[in-house]
Amino acid sequence: GQNIDQPTEMTATEGAIVQINCTYQTSGFNGLFWYQQHAGEAPTFLSYNVLDGLEEKGRFSSFLSRSKGYSYLLLKELQMKDSASYLCAVRPDAGNMLTFGGGTRLMVKP
Amino acid sequence: SQTIHQWPATLVQPVGSPLSLECTVEGTSNPNLYWYRQAAGRGLQLLFYSVGIGQISSEVPQNLSASRPQDRQFILSSKKLLLSDSGFYLCARQVGTGNYEQYFGPGTRLTVT
Lengths: 110, 113
Known about the structure:
Distance between the termini of chain B: 37 Å
Number of helices of chain A: 0
Distance between the termini of chain A: 40 Å
Radius of gyration of chain B: 13 Å
Oligomer: heterodimer
Helix content of chain B: under 10%
Largest sheet of chain B: 7 strands, mixed
Number of helices of chain B: 0
Helix content of chain A: under 10%
Radius of gyration of chain A: 13 Å
């Protein structure tokens, strides 16, 4: 089976940095995705990692360690609009499917 | 354009009634398409995916079914809804053949009463 774990909820302060962790145990690995989902809306793509290391994209960065089955999403200079759920997803094999974690609901407070 | 249309946007249906949710996509032909369900405050559960007309794979046994009558049309159906079918239904398409990113439609919020 596929297992992807994320914290259920996190709270952070506007202007701060927050790290959202994701650990996975899957039958294989062919890439990891992070999505942002505001309440009542569809998920939108944030980042993709397939090799170990850090991928930076503006205020958001995503890190991957394949040997540890671990990724994190780093959000810098938090803004109120960053309050959302963040979904970690893994492509476990060479097929066309993604397996999603339960998501982390981030609340940014003034 | 990767635009995905879903309708209706919201739906309230009684237990035991039928269901039909429609998804249509624009852009490149023969896209891989997916139906997901998201219960309140939860992650995404893959229900069905399709790699072409008439080709449907089911991931979770349940009272739902899917069909793909046209290249850019994907339909989710049920003959008799259950209370547990309530949720946010999302249609998605695979974006290209590079990293296998999926792009999501706006979703349909279904409440079964």
